[in-house]
Amino acid sequence: MFIDEHANRIGSRPPALPPGIHPPERFVPAMLRRNIVPIATVLVRRSAYEAVGPTFDARFPHIYDYEMWLRIGARFPVGRLDVTDAEWRRHGAQSSYDGHERGAELLAFLEHAEQLVARELPELCIPERRRRYVRGRRLLSAGPRRRPARRQRRRGALRAPGGPHLAAARGQPRLALALASVACGRRGHRVLRTVRHNARRNGLRLPF
Question: Helices 128-142 and 147-159 meet at what angle, rounded to 10?
Answer without folding.
Answer: 160
